[in-house]
Amino acid sequence: MKKLIFDIEITGHHAEYISHLIDHIYNNKDTNEYFFIVNSNFTSKFPIISGKVKSIKNINFIEIELEELRSLQQLGVFKKSFVEFRLMNYYALKFNVNHVCLLYFNTFQLACFFFRTQYTISGILFFQFYRMNKNTFNDKLKYYRKYLTTKMYSMNPKIQKIHILNDQNSVDFFNKEFKNGLFEMLPDPIPNLKPLDGFDIYSHYNIDQKRKIFLHIGSLGERKGTFEVIESALNIPLKNQREVTILLVGCVLNKEDEEIVLNKIEEISIKSNVTIIWDNQFVSNSMMKSLFDQCFSVLMPYKNTEGSSGILGHAISAQKQVIATGKGLLKELIEENNLGLLIAEVTPVLISEKILLMLTRQLKVNGKSSELLSSHSASIFSKKILLN
Prior knowledge:
By secondary structure, the protein is α/β, with parallel strands linked by helices. The chain folds into 2 domains: 2-186, Rossmann fold; 201-373, Glycogen Phosphorylase B (Rossmann fold, 3-Layer(aba) Sandwich), CATH 3.40.50.2000. The chain is built from 17 helices and 13 strands. It has helices spanning 14-27, 42-45, 47-52, 66-73, 77-94, 111-114, 137-153, 168-177, 201-204, 226-231, 255-271, 285-294, 310-317, 328-337, 348-360, 369-375, 378-386; strands at residues 2-7, 33-38, 59-63, 99-102, 120-125, 159-165, 183-186, 212-217, 244-249, 275-279, 297-300, 322-325, 340-343. The strands form 2 sheets. A 7-stranded parallel sheet has the order 3-2-1-4-5-6-7, with helices on both faces. A 6-stranded parallel sheet has the order 10-9-8-11-12-13, sandwiched between helices. Helix 1 packs across helix 17 (378-386). It is globular, with a radius of gyration of 21 Å.
């Protein structure tokens, strides 16, 4: 059987998922033929992952053209769905595949209502609408637009399975609402990573050993609450400021956000004794593991809380408490498993209050972490994805 795995995103969890699938195919001696269609910068950004496939005969690794990527980035949501679908379909037909797995299904929702393919389709849906507010007219408009889109593509007989991360309630609602068994809960994988030998977070970043390190890591920017994280340093009481370092690790999506981050850090360095450090890169898995293991707490004040987060999984693995937004699926996961503190809204004041609470209160590490790790393994995730 020939299968195509399509994911041309490159930030956050996307590379992790591809790495898990490659490992699973190799370790389980999967004899299907695979075609991974990835971002034009994937090999340069993740040479270790792309290097794995060189010795695996039944995996073909194809980077899309840079011009194709640039043209997609300039499109609006509606048009992008159809253009990216055509790009995916081009490779599916070129390699005559039996099945396509879309690791980021969101882009394809509209197109999958209009087109019927000769191959079957599965995908991972992020940011579903089940928990969205319906308080205002605009909220309702957005909710029912997503509802209608979901209803439309769920009628496509070529779609075999839509996976939703960590959210059985949404799965139950969708299957009942749309009267099908199309939707399935997918445990977001918590990888079992090895830390860097001899790495010390304090000496690497030249941080005073007396400070507690609050880690904000991944794709940074407005929707991740990065600006508010930085500004929170101004609201931490003066007597506690020398106890805190905020460590940002990751890249922003554009130059404009980069300027905002740099300017805010410069402002904080003048007005506060909180140390803020920005490591402007996507670090290796081993270094990421070391950062989670050695930090004090993890900051996750995300503004889009409808989906899960791989960062939460890494925090669970390192047994570190988080400070996160108290809404949506993240709220349910954190409350149910005692994973940290919640903020009602993403504001600098509320983030600073929880940072102070973390400093002054001895929070117990979640006792369910081993159970969560075993049920959210990379192997379980990969098996569900590749079974289609």
